[in-house]
Design a protein that fits this description.
- The chain is α+β, with helices and mostly antiparallel strands.
- It contains 32 helices and 32 strands.
- The strands form 6 sheets. The chain has an 8-stranded mixed barrel with strand order 24-25-27-28-29-30-31-32, surrounded by 5 helices. Strands 3-2-1-6-5-4 form a 6-stranded antiparallel beta sheet, with helices on both faces.
- The chain binds ligand C2E and magnesium ion (2 copies).
- The site of one magnesium ion has 4 residues, from strand 29.
């Protein structure tokens, strides 16, 4: 009925194609307001707060006559709710509306998850008549529209719409701005909805705990209550508050307490469960109740961390059982004493009385009481309340042979029958198994049996009771699950992985065979987490877990060991080829781009493989070997796999040695600097040099920074090393400036992100400049995107540097996940395009086209932001030509010169470089 008002695909095409022309510049204040709004959004604890923030702020940022927020709260909802967020007063006048999905314009956006923009409706009068309806959240007589899907975690959560009466309100820039805003809102909305869901799940668990008739509780390792449901309080005659912290043993009479303490110790020390232990409980008011207790250990990370227990009140059941037993004994006596009529009279009277008592107990009892032939599986009697339990009439049990036996879960049946066949040696039996309810579902029951004998000691009959323990089992299962599975990804955790690994080790030691461990570490997780936030980081881990599961066989174990580390156990493999194939498959799968809340995220994986070839390796050693191999894969450039060999272990030891050596290197002055020219792509002139650190190791020769800088950062040695580099580089540049005064030269120095944790960066830079005499304008500092993401005070430090005239270069640009808004927030002068983008220029066609457009976008972006661009890693004339065509200002790379020591650099400065002819042919 409303379909004519929603944009169909044809209309959408037209609408979105309309005048992409107008580019009205956006005021700096608007960007500031947007940044402030983004900061405030993150603080919104719930949906209402988020809404209020939008109502307060949006109208200062974007022009509109009407603004709405549509939200589909649950993915399964058939409706969405539309909130008017135009202004506080309009919101008050317009209550939220519930609208079926697909209806209205926001409803359409919710379905197809695409934005659409319309800057001038007056140009399309015939297409949209009537164009809009106020009830769909669009201003009446709207002429400009923007509708943005709010997407997070691969789901469309809502739609933000702006409409304005004036045509031409939403130019290209406004659309970009609104999209940016949309992604900030989506992220916070997703996190709020996720929290809501968590809260509901928690309430659900609470309700489940409270809905069971069993007492459920946990004890700490000293045996004190830490958690209990209401039923526990009722059973013990205490209130919950006084119960928590009370020793479990205190519920029982003194002589029993030792026995119970012993039970608790057994659970903790042996790690086994205690089932169906009958005890006499003393309620607070002094009454006694018979209860049956279960205790089981709760393990966390392989250690027992608590005890989970349950208890049922079996007072009535025991009474009923005793009564039934009495009946049966009486019946036996009756047979034996047939001849003695007088006595029989007495017995019968007694029998009648007991039967009446039994009848009463059976009606009021929550347990099903039954009796069974002792030598087959036929039920001879069952109490009427069985219907409430399993849905069957009592007579169905007694009328059909094996009625009970045929409804035991097929997995449980063999051992249930085995247990019940031991009656010749045992008088009592307890079993827990699953039983088929009439509704075709299985439910856990506890079956307690006792053998009744006649006066000559011959087996007569079995008397038993059934108790519904389904809820208890479910809760136990839930608790057990959380001890062995990772809450975020649902994968087995380290404890479960180690357990399976130990079993695998056992198996190969007993029966030979081969298995492999793959140790995985994501190469870019930290970058994603630091720059896009933890919520996206979490989504990434979940998506990775799903992909891992999808590319393995069901019998393989994939676990999350923690952080971004995963492990896979491949059992029963033929040879080394198997894990290699799997590693390749996993790497291919994980390298596919992911869309997380509107961000396209790439990550690669480094994998270490260890095989169970050494006969007596222990589980931890094998995992360590796989870990070592993974480290090796990382150090060889990431995104690859390595198979563990003994050499690697030796290498790991060597790395440790390197760390020790590095400590000495500072004192022994084993460092030196190489310099690589930075060249103007317009004139071919050297404009400056980048100082690159080298370590002259006494035994191992020249070591590249890729090897030792990570160690220096980890150990904190980066701080003294960096100040040495800065001092040395400034000194050298000062000398060159004096020597080659005609060439305006500057020096770039790389600054590690770790340095920004130091408070005295500015003071140190000042000191070095004044000591070496170098002008601040001749010093450029190179930082990476991680610095911007990791540090809160960095903006302040950077602006102080700028006020001194020291320029800041953003190094390796394009490899981090910094949001483009960083570029506004921080005073950055130059972007250095990472060499990975330059590499494919001038090579195979498809790749090149992609890379060309990335490089071009960076150049355009930089120009708009009044920044310069340096392309890193130019190696060929073709790359140079391509970059010149794209108007890239500066370049650096082997094409011009490799990094050279200071002597060779001096020579380079003395003679005109050979590349001149290539770079600026017209100038020669
Ligand atoms: P970076 O700052 O991006 O430096 C550029 C790297 O690319 C240098 O590697 C340089 O030798 C290399 N390179 C330059 N042109 C080409 C080319 O045409 N092709 C290829 N394949 N490579 C080229 P290097 O010297 O090994 O340094 C690696 C990284 O180590 C640097 O990357 C920088 O992040 C870090 N680094 C170097 N010196 C220092 C330092 O003094 N302090 C800190 N904190 N980091 C440093
Ligand atoms: Mg650099
Ligand atoms: Mg770089």
């Amino acid at each position: 009925m409303h379909e004519d008002q929603s944009p169909g695909p044809e209309l959408r095409k037209l609408i979105n194609a309309d005048s992409l022309s107008t580019r009205v510049p956006i005021a700096q204040e608007t960007l500031l307001l947007l940044a402030e709004l983004a900061n405030e959004l993150v603080t919104a604890p719930d949906f209402e707060a988020l809404k209020q923030i939008l109502i307060r702020n949006l109208r200062w940022i974007i022009d509109f006559d009407c603004c709405t927020l549509a939200v589909q709260f649950e993915p399964t909802d058939a409706d969405y709710i539309l909130f008017d967020v135009t202004s506080p007063s309009k919101t008050r006048r317009t209550p939220p509306q519930k609208i079926p999905l697909g209806e209205g314009w926001p409803g359409q956006v919710l379905l197809d998850a695409k934005p659409y923009f319309l800057s001038d409706l007056t140009q399309l009068p015939d297409l949209v008549t009537p164009p809009v309806k106020p009830e769909w959240g669009i201003a009446s007589q709207a002429n400009s529209l923007m509708l943005l899907p709010l997407r997070a975690q691969a789901r469309t959560l809502g739609c933000l719409s702006f409409s304005s009466k004036s045509p031409g309100t939403y130019s290209m820039n406004w659309r970009t701005l609104a999209s940016l805003l949309g992604s900030q809102i989506s992220e916070q909305l997703a996190s709020i909805l996720a929290q809501d869901q968590l809260k509901r799940a928690y309430e659900f668990r609470e309700r489940v705990m409270e809905s069971t008739t069993d007492a459920i509780y946990t004890l700490d390792l000293t045996g004190n209550f830490t958690l209990a449901n209401q039923r526990t309080a009722e059973m013990t005659g205490r209130n919950l508050k006084e119960l928590i912290g009370t020793p479990f043993t205190k519920l029982f009479a003194v002589p029993e307490q030792v026995k119970i303490q012993d039970l608790i110790s057994r659970v903790i020390i042996q790690g086994g469960a205690i089932n169906q232990f009958d005890l006499e409980l003393r309620q607070k008011q002094g009454q006694q109740r018979l209860i049956t207790v279960n205790l089981a250990p709760l393990t966390f990370a392989g250690e027992i961390s608590a005890i989970v227990g349950s208890a049922q009140d079996i007072t009535q059941r025991k009474q009923a059982e005793a009564a039934l037993l009495e009946v049966k004994l009486m019946q036996a006596a009756k047979q034996g004493l047939e001849k003695e009529i007088a006595q029989r009279q007495r017995v019968e009277e007694a029998l009648l009385a007991t039967q009446a008592r039994l009848q009463h107990l059976l009606i009021t009892n929550p347990t099903v009481i039954y009796s069974r032939a002792w030598d087959n599986y036929d039920i001879t009697f069952v109490s009427e309340n069985v219907k409430a339990f399993w849905g069957y009439e009592a007579r169905e049990f007694t009328a059909t042979q094996r009625f009970w036996a045929d409804r035991i879960h097929p997995e449980d049946a063999p051992w249930v029958f085995a247990a019940f066949s031991r009656f010749s040696t045992q008088e009592d039996q307890i079993c827990e198994y699953r039983f088929l309810h009439k509704d075709r579902t299985y439910r856990w029951i506890q079956d307690q049996l006792k053998l009744v004998r006649d006066s000559d000691g011959n087996p007569l009959e079995l008397v038993g009771s059934w108790h519904d323990i389904h809820e208890r089992k479910r809760i136990e299962e839930q608790l057990r699950y959380s001890a062995f599975y990772d809450a975020l990804t649902d994968l087995p955790n380290r404890a479960l992985f180690m357990n399976r690994l130990e079993h695998a080790v056992d198996r190969v030691q007993r029966q030979a065979g081969l298995f492999a461990i793959l140790f995985l570490d994501l190469d870019r997780f930290k970058v994603v987490n630091d720059s896009l936030g933890h919520s996206i980081g979490d989504q990434l881990l979940i998506a990775i877990a799903d992909r891992l599961k999808a590319c393995l066989r069901p019998e393989d174990t994939v676990a999350r060991l923690g952080g971004d580390e995963f492990a896979i156990l491949l059992e029963q493999i033929q040879d080394i080829q198997d894990p290699i194939l799997i590693a390749q498959r996993v790497q291919k799968q994980l390298a596919q781009p992911l869309n997380l809340s509107g961000h396209e995220v790439f990550t690669t994986t480094s994998i270490g493989i260890a095989l169970s070839t050494t006969p007596d390796s222990r589980a931890e050693e094998l995992l360590r070997d796989a870990d070592t191999a993974m480290y090796r894969a990382k150090s060889l450039g990431k995104d690859r796999y390595e198979i563990f060999d003994a050499q690697m272990h030796a290498n790991a030891v060597t790395l440790l040695q390197l760390e020790t050596d590095l400590r000495w290197a500072v004192d022994r002055q084993e460092f030196l600097l190489h310099y690589q020219p930075i060249v103007s792509l317009e004139t071919g002139k050297i404009t400056g040099f980048e100082a690159l650190l080298r370590w002259q190791h006494p035994q191992r020769g020249l070591i590249s920074p890729g090897v030792f800088i990570p160690i220096a950062e980890e150990t904190g040695l980066i701080v003294p090393i960096s100040w040495w580099v800065l001092d040395q580089a400034c000194r050298q540049m000062h000398t060159w400036q004096a020597q080659f005064s005609a060439q305006k030269l500057s020096i770039s120095v790389n600054l590690s992100s770790k340095l920004f944790l130091q408070t005295n960066v500015i003071a140190q830079v000042d000191q070095v400049l004044s000591k070496t005499g170098l002008a601040a304008a001749s010093l450029k500092l190179e930082i990476t995107e991680t610095v911007l993401a990791e540090n809160t005070t960095v903006a302040e430090v950077l602006s102080q540097l700028r006020s001194r005239g020291v320029q800041v270069y953003l190094d390796d640009f394009g490899t981090g996940y910094s949001s483009l808004s960083y570029l506004h927030q921080f005073p950055i002068d130059v972007l250095k395009i990472d060499r990975s983008f330059v590499k494919s220029l001038g090579s195979s066609e498809v790749e090149e086209r992609q890379e060309t457009s990335i490089v071009q976008s960076i150049v355009v972006l930089a120009r708009n932001l009044h920044m310069q661009v340096i392309a890193e890693g130019i190696e060929t004339a073709a790359q140079l030509a391509q970059l010149q065509q794209l108007n890239c200002g500066y370049g650096q790379g082997y094409f011009f010169s490799r990094p050279l020591d200071s002597k060779a650099t001096t020579l380079l400065l003395q003679s005109p470089p050979q590349w001149w002819a290539m770079v600026a042919p017209g100038r020669i």
